[in-house]
Task: inverse folding
């Protein structure tokens, strides 16, 4: 009886997993295409940075942008944006905690300071490669707010799929060299954070209004 019960339980769990998988990848597609390349930091010249095609294929985002702003190496700002319209099989939600170590950067510290726009928190890393250090802020922008946890993001994506809601969101990452007074670096990155938060939230709201509710 015990063995039969175990087999039955495993069968039910497997059936639920299959159902969840089918439900997850039948989530509705957002209306229109959200183009994150339209988002720019005001009054700053930028350069579009190259991205590895293999990385983009693994990422599975519908729209991406990777730019560098500034001419002085010690005051550069790098921005990376990726729009996901729904959870899709093969798509990998981007996490700098995995990306940076895979690119030769060590995570020296991490924290979750209050968001520069004054509502919620963001995720902050200090990374180093032996020669340089960078301050890195990132978050996941959705129509229902900001998320910093990948686990929480995936939980909400599953709930979106179960309730046939679009899981549309924009991943935002901002980084800058960590040199000189730390307060100057924090001020520089948080200024960019505030602007990107405002513009990504507005873009999601204008383009995808009502699809994520």
Result:
């Amino acid at each position: 009886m015990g063995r039969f019960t175990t087999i039955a339980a495993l069968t039910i769990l497997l059936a639920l997993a299959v159902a969840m998988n089918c439900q997850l990848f039948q989530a509705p597609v957002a209306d229109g295409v959200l183009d994150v390349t339209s988002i720019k930091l005001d009054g700053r010249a930028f350069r579009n940075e190259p991205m590895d095609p293999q990385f983009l294929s693994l990422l599975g985002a519908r729209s991406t942008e990777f730019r560098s702003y500034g001419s002085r190496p010690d005051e550069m700002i790098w921005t990376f944006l990726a729009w996901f319209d729904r959870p899709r099989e093969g798509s990998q939600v981007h996490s700098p905690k995995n990306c940076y170590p895979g690119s030769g950067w060590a995570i020296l510290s991490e924290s979750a300071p209050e968001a520069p726009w004054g509502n919620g928190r963001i995720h902050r890393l200090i990374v180093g490669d032996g020669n340089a250090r960078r301050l890195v802020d990132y978050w996941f922008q959705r129509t229902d707010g900001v998320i910093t946890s990948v686990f929480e993001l995936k939980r909400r994506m599953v709930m979106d799929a179960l309730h046939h809601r679009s899981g549309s969101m924009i991943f935002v990452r901002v980084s800058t060299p960590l040199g000189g007074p730390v307060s100057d670096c924090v001020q520089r990155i948080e200024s960019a954070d505030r602007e990107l938060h405002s513009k990504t939230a507005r873009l999601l709201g204008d383009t995808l209004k009502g699809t994520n509710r």
Observations:
- The CA atoms of residues 32 and 125 lie 34 Å apart.
